[in-house]
Every structure is written in structure tokens, then in C-alpha cells.
Design brief:
It contains one helix and six strands; from the N terminus they run ββββαββ. The protein is α+β, with helices and mostly antiparallel strands. Strands 1-4 form a two-stranded antiparallel sheet. The chain has a two-stranded antiparallel sheet with strand order 2-3. A hairpin with a 6-residue loop joins strand 2 and strand 3. It is elongated. The two termini are 44 Å apart. The protein binds zinc ion. Zinc ion binds next to loops. Zinc ion (ZN) binds next to loops.
């Protein structure tokens, strides 16, 4: 079995039973160790024991992380907008009762345009 230490920079300061190691007067809070089940297909939580440690890491290293793959221009996905009219209902309150009143509604659908690739 492969193990990683949690990469959360504050992991070893969290006061939980699961982090206590040592004996007698030599006890410490230690970084959590994580079992890695499939090293060939790494999962983000193979490196972080929880979301809090993941976000601590992101905050600490955000400049370096963004430098790996900076986005300097917006990306675009070509789409088609389809508008269809269809019959719908709304409810009106009158004469002490709810009434279903039909009306024509417009449904807008965004379709990813694969022909325009
Ligand atoms: Zn952790």
C-alpha cells in the first residue's frame, strides 16, 4: 500500500484524536497519512485529508498554482440558442379558489454547436 502525507500546511496543527502520536510527555499532533488506493490514477484527496487542508494549500500556494496554467484570454464554446413556444400554466387566485390558467411560454435551450468546431 502506498501512503501520502496530507499536503495541508496546517494539518499538523488541527486538534483531533486522529493526529495525536507519541507517548508520555513526548506527544505531538502529526500531519495525517492518507492511503492511496490507485497511485496510477491520482485523486485530489490522495494528497489532502479533507477539504479544509486542500483549501489551506490552495490559499498558501495560489500564485504558484495559477502560474502552472495561467488563463490570459477567455475561452469560448460555440452554441446555438433555440427558442420554442409551448403551452404552460400559471395559477391565479380568484373567487376563493386556485385556477389553472393556460398561457404560451417561451423555452430557451442552449445547444453546444458541434458543427462549428
Ligand atoms: Zn490534512
Amino acid at each position: 500500500m502506498t501512503y501520502n502525507w496530507c499536503h495541508g500546511p496546517e494539518c499538523h496543527t488541527q486538534q483531533t484524536q486522529s493526529r495525536i502520536r507519541g507517548s508520555g510527555d513526548n506527544k505531538v499532533l502529526r500531519t495525517r497519512r492518507i492511503k492511496v488506493y490507485q497511485p496510477q490514477t491520482p485523486h485530489i484527496y490522495d494528497f489532502f485529508c479533507n477539504q479544509s487542508c486542500l483549501m489551506d494549500f490552495m490559499r498558501t500556494h495560489i500564485t504558484s498554482i495559477i502560474a502552472i496554467a495561467p488563463r490570459r484570454e477567455a475561452l469560448e464554446t460555440p452554441i446555438k440558442i433555440e427558442k420554442e413556444k409551448h403551452e404552460s400554466y400559471r395559477y391565479e387566485w380568484s373567487n376563493d379558489e386556485h385556477r389553472r390558467v393556460p398561457y404560451i411560454s417561451t423555452r430557451t435551450t442552449i445547444r453546444v454547436d458541434n458543427d462549428n468546431g
